[in-house]
User: Fold these one by one.
Assistant:
Number 1:
Amino acid sequence: MKTARALLRTILALAGLAIGGETLAAGGANPVSGVSLIAALNDAHALAAGRADLKVLRIEGNSMLPFFGPGAVVVIKDLAAEKLRAGMVVVYTNRFNETIAHRLVASAANGWTAAGYNNSEADSTPVTAENLVGVVYATFHSNAIADNAVMLAGVNAATPVALAAPAR
C-alpha cells in the first residue's frame, strides 16, 4: 500500500503540478494539461487540506505567462515578509483591494517591487508584511474546462481569485 505522501505525489504529478519551480511553455503560451479545471481545483484543495498555512486561489489574467495563466490554480503558503527574496512569485493585495499574483523584482525601502512577467511596468503598490498573502508554493495547470457546472460552482465558491494582470 502506498503511503499518503507517495499517493499525493502521484496525484500531483498527474495534475501537471510544479512544486518549488515553474513549468514553462514554449512561446509564452498558457501551459495547459489534460486535467479539467474541477480536478485541478479539487487536487489543490486536497494538497491544502488540514494546513492552516496553505490557501488555494484560481488565476485570472495573462501577465504571468508562460508560468501560469487563466485556468491555473495555485496553492499559496504563508511566509514571513523578512524571508522574501527577488524572483519569488507572491500573492498580495494592492491599493485597489485586488488580489495580485506577481514576481518580486527588487527590495525597496517601502517593501518589495513586484511585476508580472509580461508587464512593461512594475506594480504601483509595494509588497509589504501588511499586504502579503503568501508565496506561490504549488501550481496546478488545467485545460480551463469545467465539465460539470454544478460541481464547478461549489469549488469556485470556495476558491478566491488572484489576478495575473497588467500593472496598476
Number 2:
Amino acid sequence: MTGTTPSDSAAPRVSMVMPVHNGARWLEEAIASVLAQSFADFELILVDDASRDESPAIMTAAAARDPRVRYLRLDTNVGLPAALNHGFAQARGEFHSWTSDDNLLRPAMLERLLGVFAVQPEADIAYADFTLIDDQGNDLGRSRVGPVERLLHGNNIGACFLYRRDVSEALGGYDIGLFGVEDYDFWLRAAQRFTFAELHEDLYLYRKHGGSLTSKRADQIHALTALIVERALPDQLPPRSRSEILLGLALKSQRRWRFDLVRRALRAHPPSVAARLPALARWTLVVARNRMTA
C-alpha cells in the first residue's frame, strides 16, 4: 500500500473518501465536484483499489494539483467496503463522508450538511435528498430521503450524507463481508445508537447505469439486504410491522427470493399477508417467468 501524505499538519474539518476501481470514465468529473465545494476545509482521500485502467494517472495528477487531495494505492483489489475502511483509517477530519467515482457533489453539499449540525448540535449523522442521473448526466428525477424510523423498510438514507468521526470509530467501519449493502448495514447499526437529521435539499447527483455495482449484483444485493434487515429487527417489534417488513423483502426480489420470508411473515401476522395477496400473486408470476427464462 502506498500513498501521499498531507503537506499541512492541521487537520481538516471534513474527510471525504472516494474508493476507485477502474473508474476512469467519470473520475475527473467526480473529483472536480468535490474540489468545487463552497466549503473548502476538507481533505479528499482517493483510494485506488488496484485499478488497471487510467484511474491511477488521473488520481495522482489530482493529488499533485491540489494539496487537499491524498492518493492511497492498494496493491490488491479488496472491494468497496474494505477500500472505504482503508480510506477512513487515514482520515483526519472531525466529519466523515464518502462518494463514488461515478457520482457528483453539488457545490453546496458540505456547507449545507455542516449547517445541519450547527442548527442541531445533538445530531450525529446528516443526510439530504439527491437527483438520479443517467450515463449522459440527464436528470431522471429527485430522490427524497425518508425518516430513520422507516429504515427497516428500506435504505432511505440515500447517497448524500455526513457524519461525525465518533460514528466511524464506534461502528468499526464498514463490514467487508457485505459488499453491495455495506452502507445500508452501516446505517442500520448506526440507528441503534446515534441521532439522524434529514435535510430536504437536493445536494448530490447519483448516476444509474448498467455498469454500476448495484446493477451488476442485484440478486446478491437482495439476498444480503434480507440478511441484514432480519438481523436488525428488534425483538420487541410489533407482529404486524415484522410481517410487513419480511413480506416487503420478499416482494423486492424477482429471482433469488426466499419462500421462508413469506412463511415467516405469515406466522408473524396473517392479516398483513392476506392484505397483500394481489401483490403476492403478481410476484409469483414474475418469479415463475424468470425461472423459465433463466
